[in-house]
Structures are given as structure tokens and as C-alpha cells.
Design brief:
220 residues, alpha/beta, Rossmann fold, five-stranded parallel beta sheet, two-stranded antiparallel ribbon, 9 helices, binds ligand SHN, binds 1,4-dihydronicotinamide adenine dinucleotide, precorrin-2 dehydrogenase, ferrochelatase activity, oxidoreductase, precorrin-2 dehydrogenase activity, EC 1.3.1.76
Length: 220
């Protein structure tokens, strides 16, 4: 499986099943998308999240069976369906309905043997705009979670580094610096211990360190 980052803003995600797993998926996707959860009962924390002002999460109390779940796909018109009930027959029907309608499907109750269009949700950790996603190919979700916790410490400050170097590459481009020299300068900045340390002290410290690194390659 090849990891891809998918922009779900302006899209709707349909979560079938509102238990602990449905709640985790709903909260995750609600960071970006509208989320509709269809279930006969809901996890308490999901109810709280849906009750917040301007919550992107909508709860619909219903218990579709294997025959009627496709009607919810038609009605909600989601980009992605998450099958998160504790009934494998309903989850399988949700999968079939999503694939029939040409939508993505996340089966939460199976690990291997996926059809095209079937996606897994990785463990993710972010220092925005930097995001790292971990999957074990469905083999060990608990390991994905444990690795995610370790990687969190590793990427501290990466968001600020992304912002700084994003700005520098724009400035160097605008100044007409030869592209190969610009790339070398940026590659050195992201590997510079001095710049990483500078970021801990603040943006302007980091900027001074970065300018020193850039001076080594760019004639300005
Ligand atoms: C295939 C996949 C499909 C999908 O959901 O996309 C899937 C499937 C299954 N998970 C199961 C169990 C657990 N899942 C977790 C946790 C997470 N599971 C997530 C993803 C995935 N889970 C996809 C593969 C990811 C990969 O490739 O590694 C994470 C990463 C992302 C998320 O869901 O948000 C999230 C961590 C979030 C975080 O970062 O915190 C824990 C740990 C815990 O709860 O503490 C346990 C218990 C311990 C264990 O079993 O490992 C079971 C067995 C159910 C049963 O026993 O009946 C199945 C079904 C099966 O394996 O058949
Ligand atoms: N992907 C993952 O990370 C994990 C997946 N699982 C799998 O996910 C499934 C769900 O796990 P939990 O959320 O812990 O179970 P749960 O029992 O807490 O939640 C199941 C939810 O589905 C709802 N439901 C039942 N029939 C329904 C129907 N016909 N239509 C809509 N909703 C219906 C129930 O009301 C309940 O809210 C498990 O069966 C397991 O196979 C379990 C743990 C982790």
C-alpha cells in the first residue's frame, strides 16, 4: 500500500457505527471534513463533540441493515465511508455500497485482503504543517500507535523549520538565485544543527543561523 495525503476539506465522511472506534475515526476526520455518523447508539464523547457550537459532526440515530446501508451512502454523498459497526455483515454491505458508488472505504474490522478503493487510517502525528503517518500494513495497529508516540518527540520543531525554509525558498527564488544553488542552500538549512537549535530560541535567532548557512553557498 502506498501512503497518500488526501485533502478532505469541503468533503463529507460517513461513519457507520458510533462506538469507540467510530468516535475515534469521526474526531480524526472532523479536523478537516464534515462528518455524519449513523448509529443506533453513540459513544458519550462523540455526543459531547457533536454538541459543540459549529461542530462539523452530525449524529443520525438509525440502525441500517445490510440492505438499507447503501441508501445512506446515496443520501449523505460522502467521499469516504468508514465501516465501524460491530456487525461484520453491515460493515461488508457498507463496503460494497461505497465501492459501488465509487467512494473510498475504510473497513475498521479487517486488516488484510483489501479491494481497490479500500483505505486504512494510519496513526498520525503532526507539528503543523508537518505530518507523519505510520502504518504496519494492518499487522499491528498497537505498534503504529506506539511508534507515533515516539516520533512525536522526534519531529518537535519541524513545523517551524518547514515555515522558515518555505519562506527562504520563496525569497531565494524571487531573488533569481540559480535553482541548483537554491536547492543546495535549502538542503543545508534543514540539516543544520545550528538552525534547529536556533528555532528553539525563536524565529529571529533561527533566521540568523539560516542566513549564515545560506551565505556559504549563495553569493548575495
Ligand atoms: C487495518 C486498520 C483499519 C483501519 O481502521 O483503518 C485497523 C484494524 C484493526 N485495529 C484493531 C485493533 C486496534 N486498533 C488500535 C488503534 C488504531 N488502529 C488504527 C488503524 C488501523 N486499525 C488500520 C491499520 C493501521 C496499521 O496499518 O497499522 C490507528 C493506527 C488509526 C486510527 O484508527 O485512528 C489507531 C491508533 C491511533 C493512534 O495513533 O492513537 C488499537 C490500539 C488501542 O486501541 O490502543 C487496537 C488494539 C490493539 C491491537 O489489536 O493492535 C483491530 C482488531 C479489533 C479486534 O480485536 O477485534 C483491527 C481489525 C483487524 O485487525 O482485523
Ligand atoms: N480499526 C480499529 O482501530 C479497531 C477496530 N475494531 C473493530 O471495530 C469494530 C467496532 O469496535 P468498537 O467501536 O470498539 O465497538 P462498539 O461495540 O463500541 O461500537 C459498535 C457501534 O456500532 C453500532 N452499530 C451496531 N449495529 C449498527 C448498525 N446496523 N448500523 C449502524 N451502527 C451500528 C453500535 O450502536 C455501536 O455504537 C469491532 O467490531 C472491531 O472489529 C476494534 C478496535 C480497533
Amino acid at each position: 500500500m502506498i501512503p497518500l495525503y488526501h485533502d478532505l476539506s469541503e468533503e463529507t465522511v460517513l461513519v457507520v457505527g458510533g462506538g469507540a472506534v467510530g468516535r475515534r475515526k469521526a474526531l480524526n476526520f472532523a479536523e478537516e471534513a464534515r462528518v455524519v455518523v449513523v448509529s443506533p447508539a453513540f459513544d458519550d464523547r462523540l455526543v459531547e463533540a457533536a454538541a459543540e457550537d459549529d461542530s462539523p459532526i452530525g449524529l443520525v440515530r438509525a440502525a441500517p441493515n445490510a440492505d438499507s446501508v447503501s441508501a445512506w451512502v446515496d443520501r449523505v454523498d460522502p467521499a469516504l465511508v468508514v465501516a465501524a459497526t460491530d456487525d461484520p455483515a453491515v460493515n461488508a454491505a457498507a463496503e460494497a455500497a461505497a465501492l459501488d458508488a465509487g467512494r473510498l472505504i475504510n473497513r475498521t474490522d479487517v486488516s488484510g485482503g483489501r479491494d481497490p478503493g479500500s483505505v486504512v487510517v494510519p496513526a498520525t502525528v503532526a507539528d503543523d504543517p508537518v505530518r507523519v503517518a505510520v502504518s504496519t500494513g494492518g499487522r499491528s495497529p498497537a505498534l503504529s500507535k506506539a511508534l507515533r508516540e515516539r516520533i512525536g518527540a522526534e519531529i518537535e520543531g519541524a513545523g517551524a523549520m518547514a515555515e522558515l525554509t518555505g519562506e527562504l525558498r520563496e525569497e531565494l527564488s524571487a531573488a533569481g538565485v540559480d535553482p541548483e544553488i537554491r536547492r543546495e542552500a535549502i538542503r543545508r538549512v534543514v540539516r543544520s544543527e545550528g538552525v534547529w537549535k536556533g528555532l528553539q530560541k525563536g524565529r529571529s535567532k533561527a533566521r540568523i543561523e539560516a542566513d549564515n548557512v545560506i551565505e556559504e553557498v549563495v553569493d548575495r
